[in-house]
Amino acid sequence: MELIKKAAQLRYEARYMEAIGLIEEHAEALAVADKIPALLQALYAAEEAQLEVNAEQFANRLRQLEPSLPSLQRYG
Fold this sequence. Notes:
Mean pLDDT: 96
Radius of gyration: 11 Å
Shape: globular
Number of domains: 1
Structural class: mainly alpha
Number of helices: 4
Order of helices and strands: HHHH
Low-confidence stretches: none
Largest sheet: none
Oligomer: single chain
Distance between the termini: 29 Å
C-alpha cells in the first residue's frame, strides 16, 4: 500500500509521469488486490496529464482485472 500512497502523493504534486513510472515499475509484482488501486492511480495520473493513450492502456489493463470499475466507463 505504500506504493499506492506514494503514487497518490506524486499525483497531488502534479508529478504525473513519476506516478505513472512508479506504478509501471512495480505493478506486475503486486497481488491483484493491490494491483487494481495501483493501476487506478496510474490511470488517474495519465488522465490528469492528458495522456489519453496511456490512460487507455491502463483502462485496458484494469478491465482485464475488474471490468465493472466505474472509472472505466468512459473507455467503452
